[in-house]
Amino acid sequence: DLIQINVGGRVITVRRGTLTYQKGTMLEALFSGRWDKEIYRDGFGHIFLDVNPEHFQRIIDNLSALKHSSEEEKSQYLHTDKELQLILDRALTYFEIEQTPSSTKISSTAVMNKDLQQSFMNYPQAPLQTQEVVPEEEIWETMTFDEFPSILENPLSQEQKSLKTAKEELQRSKRNLEKEKGFIHRVCAQSPNDIVNFDVRGAMMTVKRSTLRAFKDSQLGRQFDDAMWPGQHGDTPSIEKWSHVQVIDWLKHQAEIPGEVTKLFEETKVNGLELLALGCDDLKELGVHKPGTLALIIRAIKNLKLKSQNCPIFIDHDPYCFGEILDQLRL
Hints:
Distance between the termini: 31 Å
Structural class: mainly alpha
Radius of gyration: 27 Å
CATH topology of the largest domain: Potassium Channel Kv1.1, Chain A
Mean pLDDT: 80
Number of helices: 16
Strand content: 5-15%
């Protein structure tokens, strides 16, 4: 079961079994299948995570080593230099992944070069643990059965104990689900419109729009607010605003679509908004009946949608510095 994940703009392919190898972690919860309907994907169908890709890749590498190594080999795979170990430890803590005894423990006072030290300091802290609220006991939990004969007292007491245990388990499960949901909402996009792609001098980066708006009064915050965002896709008109002439021009550049289809679109003057809404039945009403041609048109429209959703915004900025800005905003 291979999963492709868009991690901050880098697509990482990994087996689900590797992601869920350590039970009880936030990473296991994220890819357990429990939250699949809550996780929005990018335009290419990849699960999107708004985290640093370098750190996430390191986590995957170590989980894979743990999964496929013997006890003797684990220390060899998990041993790393002081600089990377500090960053790795911080990333593992963030995803609540247990570190094995064989992992090299490095003091926080270890010497790091300037770039890695900054990266380490910028890594998000693990979610804060909220104080557990102890619910009031219900009447049945405080009942005593002294007045009953012993033949009834013992079974009733055991049943009461079992019910208390079941209630505690239910409450624990509820707290865990709430914790998982909060974590998923923090690292995943909340809607397709929340995913922003950047081309930073050739380096592709992806981030949540809500992350860019962490400081609403900043230039980034204002640029990507709800009022301004629809106009941030460059000078090219959005497909929804295409005229029927632009639709025809697009069709003429689709080599796999027959010319007679273009003529049908010319006659009906289909505009961009209508083009994106077309389905198989709609195309049949337009006069397209050949199954193969229908499939080609549907595929071309789908690819057009993907292209429009994933058109990156060009940033003329140093990729390393811009990446550091994104890491700061993710805190």
